[in-house]
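Protein record
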Amino acid sequence: MTTKQTFPSSPRRDDDIDLHALLGTLLDHKWLIVGVTALFFVFSVLYVTLATPVYEATATVQVEQKVPSLPGLDDLTQTLGASSSQATTEIALITSRTVIGQAVTNLKLDIQAEPERFPIIGNYLARHYNPQMPGDVAPPLMGMDSYDWGGSQLDIFQLDVPSGLLDKPLHVIAGEHGAYTLTDDDDNVLLQGRVGQTATGNGITMQVQALHANPGTVFDVARHSHLGTITALQAAIQAVEMGKDSGIIVLTYDNPDPVLATQLLDQISSLYVQQNVERNSAEAANSLKFVKEQLPKVKMDLEKATAALNAFQMRAHSVDISLQTKGLLDQTVSIDTQIENLRMQMADVERKFTSNHPTYQALAAQIGQLQAKKAALEKQVGNLPDTQQELLRLTRDVQVSNETYTNLLNQAQQLDIARAGTVGNVRVVDRAATNTNKPVWPPKMILVFCGTALGGLLALAFIFIRQLLNRGVEDLAAIEHVGLPVYACVPLSAAEREISVRTGKVRRGVYAQHLLAQSAPDDLAVEALRSLRTSLHFARLEAKNNLLMISSPGPGAGKTFVGANLAAVIAQAGQRVLLIDADMRKGALHSVVGGRPEQGLSELISGQIGLSEAVRTVEGASNLYFIARGKVPPNPSELLMHAHFTALLEKLKPRFDLIIIDTPPILAVTDAAVIGHHVGTSLMVVRFGVNQAREIALAKQRFEQNGVPVKGAIFNAVEKRSAGYYAYAYYEYAGAKA
């Protein structure tokens, strides 16, 4: 009767999520998760500690409603729906090249000068250096005087370079007593100079205003193109309106130097206000010029009208007009005055807009309405006597010209005052300021939390992806599902790894023995092999002979380890056991039981040596014998199919209680199928997490196609899992120490 280990398995759909197995996987890799998470936590803390802080400077400006160019136009523009906020246009103006370019020139932002610092920790040490006196410099650490350790400063007043050196890295090396040397990136000396003096050489003009540094300190210097610097600042400076049509614009700029950030926004806001004042003042000056050009013409018209009236009165001997004529005169003068003022406004609008502009069209419509009223009045005037009509016309011309001239004089005075006292329609609400106690970067708590969480997520992702990609079987049910009963589960042995590392090849190609059954007989893996020995005792009762073949689907399953230690365990029970290495290509049984691979099976089959020479005893293991693989032959499969191999097995059967044959993997070569026809029992070694279920099924099918039945499987190198068979299948049960 055959005895084997059987394990219950419940059917589960492929798309089901096994929460127990998922939790078990996480518990199995808990130290990896903890380690990676802790590593990311440490890196996050180091980063937020060593990272250079970035500060945000802010400034606020207000854009008010724009004042009209000519007095009297205010009501009209409001009627036509002029916007109360000019923020959209002003944002473009405040970040224009004109404004930012002037700020770049004033602050010399196109000249870069930064001291070189030790990688990673240099900036941190320099930030935390507290000088005792202004201008003090930290002494160099460990003699590395080329780095700045705190306090170093280089202020360049002028740096003009040829176009070929624009945006190219240069280096200033501090010398003694204010001397310095300018080099290029290839350490070629370009010029030498001294603080406060202008130095020239190789097309470069340079003047250093201040230099505080240890001799030998290196500064990275570059002269950037003016336009490139402006473009970079335009992208870095943010101008946003607070609320729709509020007219409040907030400027923000981030920089590691809070003083520079504040100075830049101060410059931009001041230059913007100045530019706005100049622009509005220029508009008032242009309007004043237009009014002054009209004054001589209107004055001439007034003089002509007055002279004509005087001449008529002297000729007609009449100086008075009737009450009816007086009323018509007042109405006519009022309308003509309004028409004249509207024409003046229309002329001013024509300087800025086309005749299709709504403002121009509105003025033209008002003039048309007034002219219609004037035409109606002129009909009434036509009913008056000729003398009264002429007197009315001349008096009207005088009064209209006089009022027009008076209005123009008033406008000229108003525009002159506006030009002289223009303050613009923008003002600085909040000057630039920077909160040095709260940098905007790095946000320490957030970064540490996110970095730690990222480490945990990456660890989980790595575990699950590796689990997904590694489709090797980790459950007995997967092996039994392909029709192979599992005879034993051999745990992964840490002692085996230690023995393998400790022992190895010795002189002249002779290997030292590292049988686990000999070195660590209480190991769990050896106990599992003893369980397999018991199962095989009953399985062999139905076998046709005492030959046991051990194979595997592919390489790396551990069949050599299983075969050698199984043989040792059976030999320890008092049975005579012969271990044959039938893998004449890459057999490695000699490296486990000890000895050399030569003088083995290949020479024995080919008749080069006798049986007595090939069969060896295993040192320290009574009743255990061994035949090595021999020299690698050119035709291993043909040798196994030779009659000599069959005859050899027939000779060996009666001499031993059990013969264990270690064969090559069945999916690699056909040697195992050839040997399988001679043996009574065939077992397949499956490695935990390595061999796939499809691979196991294919190996079983390959044996069956060749007429070799596989008795069962040995689940090798089973690792301890929080969920699964090995979680409860083996417990250490060692004897008490005396």
Notes: DSSP finds 25 helices and 20 strands in the chain. The first helix runs from residue 19 to 28. The mean pLDDT is 83.
